[in-house]
């Protein structure tokens, strides 16, 4: 069984603006979860590996959305970071779980569990950047971000078009990056060396997501050619050309690095001098307490230097709330 992407196998989304594959695209088989009901169906042939998992490689690569945030949660615990960073890592894990269910079943309900957590996670990330130099949680900001999430969710459920979600996701991601750069600039007033590390982290995160987005589009626009090449080379090498699977690996890495960078920036803003960025296996940044010392929550003097108002120790301790 085969179809052409222009016939609607992927729904109308960002990639539709770039054209579509001129080659015939193989859908694959029908498996345990029945016919595809999602508005998107990716380039990996359905049920080719296991009868109970629609897209084996697109589903299984979501493991990285679980493993890396677990490292982040452990780091947040060891560095006594605020609860907003636990929420950020948990949101990434939720994205991974939803994406696994979506690619494993290709049903519309599971598609929502993939895409809506992405929007929720991005709203949380934006909140952490808005609150970077705040002395206490902002209910207004929380309500504003909740309103954004609910508005996008309601619109998506009513219109059922992927491009709406995708454009909203891109817009929030750009806001997050802009706020992140602004926050690093403010921190650089008192932490020049650390700011250089933060700039490199945000560059790594942005670079990874841009490369991932390129692969995401190539996977759809040139799907027919990719399938032909994969069939020609066979296993195990063909797995390397499952480009949407690489989107998961790279976007998961970009999201993790972005959260680590925001967490580190916040700790510096709070005046923490006992935390640094370690790099595991030459790739994965992890926040650690220097010398295994007990976490020093800081006095907030560095925040005062950057936002031009005092931050007492009592207020710094209260920041643990969110």
TrEMBL record:
One of its GO terms (molecular function) is hydrolase activity, acting on carbon-nitrogen (but not peptide) bonds, in linear amides. Pfam families: Ceramidase (PF05875). GO terms for cellular component: endoplasmic reticulum membrane. GO terms for biological process: ceramide biosynthetic process; ceramide catabolic process. Its main location: membrane. Keywords: Calcium, Hydrolase, Membrane, Metal-binding, Transmembrane, Transmembrane helix, Zinc. Its cofactor is Zn(2+). The chain crosses the membrane at residues 56-77, 89-110, 116-134, 141-159, 165-185, 197-216, 245-265, 277-294. Ca(2+) binds at residues 41-42, 44, 46, 55. It is a multi-pass membrane protein. Zn(2+) binds at residues 103, 244, 248. Belongs to the alkaline ceramidase family. This is Alkaline ceramidase 3.
